[in-house]
Records
---
Amino acid sequence: MAKGKIVAGFLAPHPPHLVYGENPPQNEPRSECGWEQLRWAYERARASIEALKPDVLLVHSPHWNTQLGHHFLGVPELSGKSVDPIFPNLFRYDFNLKVDVELAEACAAEASAGGLVTRMMRNPGFRVDYGTITTLHMIRPQWDIPVVGISANNSPYYLTLDEGMGEMDTLGKATRRAIEKTGRRAVLLASNTLCHWHFHQEPLLPEDMTQERPQSYEGYKWDMRMIELMRRGETAEVFRLLPQFIQEAFAEVKSGAFTWMYAAMGYPNIPAELHGYGNVIGTGNAVMEWNLDKHRKGLRVNDQPVAA
Ligand SMILES: [Fe+2]
């Protein structure tokens, strides 16, 4: 079997508003419009996925919470209705997805060997969280590529940030080894919003875009600063600032997907492509791509973030 590889990573946030704004047949609520900049950003990302032709999409979601260990979807096919508990008025989605169980098991085994507590999720009636579903729908609405779903064990919230991020780094490196061993062409999806300061009240019409703007000017400036660094491939600086960014912008990257993805990719110093940025109920969201295939020549795999 040929050695597998990660062909790209994406920052692929999961506000359910994006699915609501698009009106796919799977989602029950209907909208008039909304959040177009982000939806068009995802259209660009969809074109990249089409060109990359991955065997599998791996997604790490903050809204599948498993405090005891890192869990992996382990049922070949899952279907049901996914509902956002915060925005049930916007997201009631009938999902049907296929899981790459062999790769998921390999990820769990490698993570376990790396010292993490892991568990395969074998419940056939499991209701997949809205973070996983929204990210997957927005990046590949055809649902024709198998997936690996990884939970957020929230260690950065109940251990120190350093310890928690250390677990995400280990999880990322384990994911990379599993992909290489199983021969997959894989795409990683970090399902994270950037600045997470948000409004506490929804407009009467949720898609009324005259009401949509950053909730926090400081948070907005943080997002622009971090995006600019990522666009320049300044990975060491991104990770030097990450704890302060998390603290001051209440950034959702704290949940670990972002670090997991970067670690799996080998903390590359390649420029990320920004497909688009937008606010959702005041939070900051960027759809970004690290195309390792395009930058494969001279690409270094690092154990930790290093200066370019
Ligand atoms: Fe979220």
Note: Strands lie at 5-11, 56-65, 70-73, 77-83, 92-98, 118-121, 147-152, 185-190, 273-280, 283-291.
---
Amino acid sequence: MIQTDSTLRNIKVRFPGQIIIGKNSIVELADEITGAGHVHILIITIDVLLPIIHPVIERLRQQNVHVRINTSITSEPSYRDVESLLKFIAGQAVDVVVGIGGGSVLDIAKIVAAQIENDQTINEITGNGLLRKRGVKLICVPTTAGTGSEVSPNAILIDDADNQKKGIISPYLVPDTVIIDPALTYNLPPEVTAATGLDALTHCLEAYTNIFAHPFIDMYAYEGIRLIAANLAKAVNNGTDENARAQLAIGSMLGGFCLGPVNTAGVHALSYPLGSMFHIAHGLSNALLLPYVMRYNIIAAPARYATVARALGCNSLDTDLETAYAGVDKICQLIKQCGIPRKLSDVGVGKSAIPIMAADAIKITRLLKNNPRTITLSDAINIYEEAY
Ligand SMILES: NC(=O)c1ccc[n+]([C@@H]2O[C@H](COP(=O)([O-])OP(=O)(O)OC[C@H]3O[C@@H](n4cnc5c(N)ncnc54)[C@H](O)[C@@H]3O)[C@@H](O)[C@H]2O)c1
Ligand SMILES: [Zn+2]
């Protein structure tokens, strides 16, 4: 049963020290660094953004800030990538780590910042609350909308030893400063806009319908669903729709606030094997499963799913159950408007992989325990088959 209406569970929410939001707010980065007297900066970003951030980097260099730039992280990062980045800066002073990119770049920036002055190994910090400290300043600038990693205490990395995605969760991973500049997302290709936007929507939706849903977090989750549902198709169809991009950037950040205290559930658990076994991007993996997990869950929380449906833009029908199912139809319609693959069979997943994926997914108990309806091995197989 969802606890939110009857009890008030204790939660701890760590917010970033400062969030700067606005079109072209990336210009504030230089003052954030020089104003605090920092002189050795590591920027982790992607090549495609270098021309856009070039003026800020020039300004930093003119003020005698030593800027090192690394663009090696092009997709979802692994433990080995953390080691390579730490080697890249070995023996050099770094007092600020800046991540400018999608969730892949932000997650690795968070872990590199944590590990610079830390003698714990990456295996020792994997899990919840095991990281002991972060010694250097961390600034995160998201360029997808997205993971919400810029405000979350989570980093998700692939463990090269078993090819599984693992979470490192710690209040020390919440950045000191976040810059939300929707203009950095204008060049994001439509299919990445769609997949990352559906990921953000899933963060909000899985928080709102979570066993551990909390009234304080519901506020972010509901508004995130509303903003993303109303703007995603617009941004996919016209990447420079400034209003849609701005609303999505904010919706994605609201999804990030849901990740620490409540977190995701069945959709994310079932999507992880798609990433680790078939290298399907995180957002697309979630989008492929979202309608099917919703349909499976509704019976366990019809009132909550009816509210989700209203946030998605549906009208109330005669019963919560009917309204809730209308919400699933709305999600299917949104995914269709986004023009991304809709079935596991469209993305090269062999049907014979389903039992293996299901066996992997049900190991992700840290997320499955949050799902409003228990998912067993055979339930997971059925959900994958419906999504096939
Ligand atoms: N830490 C968290 O709280 C959290 C939450 C959810 C997901 N994640 C993790 O985040 C990762 C996925 O992040 P993502 O979905 O943002 O995708 P991503 O960072 O992998 O980016 C997707 C693609 O878009 C490109 N890209 C990014 N910004 C761009 C821009 N502005 N213009 C053009 N191209 C751009 C990237 O280079 C990449 O090729 C996964 O590893 C996932 O597990 C983390
Ligand atoms: Zn996600």
Note: The first helix runs from residue 28 to 34.
